[in-house]
Amino acid sequence: MVPVSGRLPEDLYQWLSALPLEGATTFSDKMREAIATLKRLHDGGADYVGALTMHRDLSRSARDQLAALELQSGEHSEVVAAVLEHAPAFGAALQSAHVATLDDARLLEAQLVRRALQLAETLLRQMLTTEAAAYDPQVVRRHAGRLIELARAIPPLNQPQGD
């Protein structure tokens, strides 16, 4: 370890002192964890897996709160679970993208569209029953009307479109 000395504005000191960080009890522990987090943010964009880990870490608080709520209430939302799975993947794809050429842009586009359609498919599956596996069983039906309308207007994929 290298000892470091520095000055912080009072508001940042108070904020960091009060911030609960896993495994960090002293102010020095919190400073080390804060700097390690900043390094992960910086390094996380270098590759998809690192960026995905970072984006999952950013949503950890919501995940933990939802887990506690589910434990207390006995309810679970497949809808929220799907979004928590896909949202970090979107962020990671965008953060780790290296778009120097049109081919790079096409690869990123394909990755984003594939992920978006996987999420849409997951949400549409929730409409196969009268009530979605969600905290609000009607949430998907209530918000999917226009998507369903658009999907019905798409010609079958195996038929040639008008010339």
What does this structure look like?
There is one protein chain. The chain has 163 residues and is mainly alpha-helical. The protein has one domain (28-153). It is built from 8 helices and no strands. Helix 2 crosses helix 3 (48-58) and helix 3 (48-58) packs across helix 5 (78-96). The N and C termini lie far apart (71 Å).
Task: Spell out the blueprint of helices and strands.
Layout: H1 10-18, H2 27-44, H3 48-58, H4 60-73, H5 78-96, H6 102-125, H7 139-143, H8 145-153
Helix pairs in contact: 2-3, 3-5, 5-6
Using only CA atoms, what is the Rg?
A: 22 Å
**What profile does the largest beta sheet have?**
none
Number of domains: 1
Write down how many β-strands occur, each being a DSSP E stretch of 2 or more residues.
Answer: 0
Oligomer: single chain
Number of alpha- plus pi-helical segments? 8
What do the pLDDT scores average to? 91
Which features does this protein show?
mainly alpha; 0% strand
Summed up:
The protein has 163 residues and is mainly α.
